[in-house]
Recover the amino acids of this structure.
């Protein structure tokens, strides 16, 4: 591990080499990253990006949900934002600014404490603001970009920009916009409301999540996108795959669109199970499921 100091490099953050990504993903699997950087703040992140070659592969991690890192690890640089870019503030009458490393659930709670409504659904998103922005994450009928009024991005040279939703094509679990920029903060436009009612809604949503999702096991959230007019979980369950396992990876008995690590799973087990489920559902139901989780890295 190398800790960069302001005196010798201009950096305040910590650079680690060959860091096991199993420590940073919610499935608890994944090989090492060639380089793994934890910035202290936006300025430090900008400075770090300027030190990288222009063609350096970059990968960004928050809480490591919705992500499968293969057992061979990642060639390039992984930047860890969770707990690092964590500023959260109210700006103006009804807007909350949250940096990319803020947990989505924390944004939901903060907004309600500010007497603002509309972000409660984010309590059910098991990741950070950066990830929610990148994939238009949703839960309980809400979607991230429905409440976004602006985003802040950074490119490979460390340049900051502020962009509007009109700069992006937003779809179901899909966000397309300027290439070579990454989300480093979001502005969320909410509506004034009753704090107690908001707290009660968050409590109810979390109770529902705990009752219907295998939160006690390592998982990455929903594995497949819901096809138009249907639910992946229904199709998987109808195919008889609840409890089906490959090695230490199993389709959850509680929610069929979740794959859990029972303790000994490898990334290869999980990826194979994803492929098996997709193939079996396609054969049995005539629907080809599309993975929602992002898969990166090299096979072992």
């Amino acid at each position: 591990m190398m800790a960069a100091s302001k005196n010798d490099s201009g950096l305040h953050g910590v650079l680690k080499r060959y860091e096991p990504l199993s420590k940073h993903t919610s499935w608890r699997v994944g090989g090492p990253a060639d380089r793994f950087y934890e910035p202290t703040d936006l300025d430090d992140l900008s400075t770090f990006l300027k030190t990288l070659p222009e063609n350096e592969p970059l990968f960004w991690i928050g809480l490591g949900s919705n992500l499968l890192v293969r057992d061979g690890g990642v060639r390039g640089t992984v930047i860890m934002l969770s707990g690092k870019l964590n500023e959260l503030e109210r700006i103006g009458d009804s807007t909350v600014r949250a940096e990319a490393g803020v947990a989505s659930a924390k944004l939901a709670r903060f907004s309600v404490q500010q007497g603002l409504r509309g972000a409660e659904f984010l309590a059910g998103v098991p990741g950070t603001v950066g990830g929610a922005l990148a994939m238009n994450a949703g839960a309980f009928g809400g979607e991230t970009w429905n409440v976004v009024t602006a985003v802040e991005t950074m490119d490979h040279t460390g340049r900051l920009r502020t962009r509007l939703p009109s700069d992006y094509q937003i779809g179901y679990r899909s966000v397309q916009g300027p290439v070579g920029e990454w989300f480093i903060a979001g502005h969320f436009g909410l509506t004034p409301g009753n704090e107690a009612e908001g707290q009660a809604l968050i409590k109810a949503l979390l109770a529902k999540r705990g009752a219907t999702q295998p939160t006690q096991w390592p998982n990455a959230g929903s594995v497949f996108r819901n096809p138009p007019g249907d639910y992946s979980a229904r199709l998987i369950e109808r195919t008889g795959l609840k409890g089906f396992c490959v090695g230490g990876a199993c389709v959850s008995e509680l929610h069929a669109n979740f794959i859990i690590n029972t303790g000994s799973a490898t990334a290869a087990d999980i990826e194979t199970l994803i492929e098996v489920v997709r193939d079996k559902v396609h054969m049995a139901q005539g629907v080809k499921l599309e993975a929602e989780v992002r898969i990166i890295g090299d096979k072992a």
Observations:
- The two ends are 23 Å apart (CA to CA).
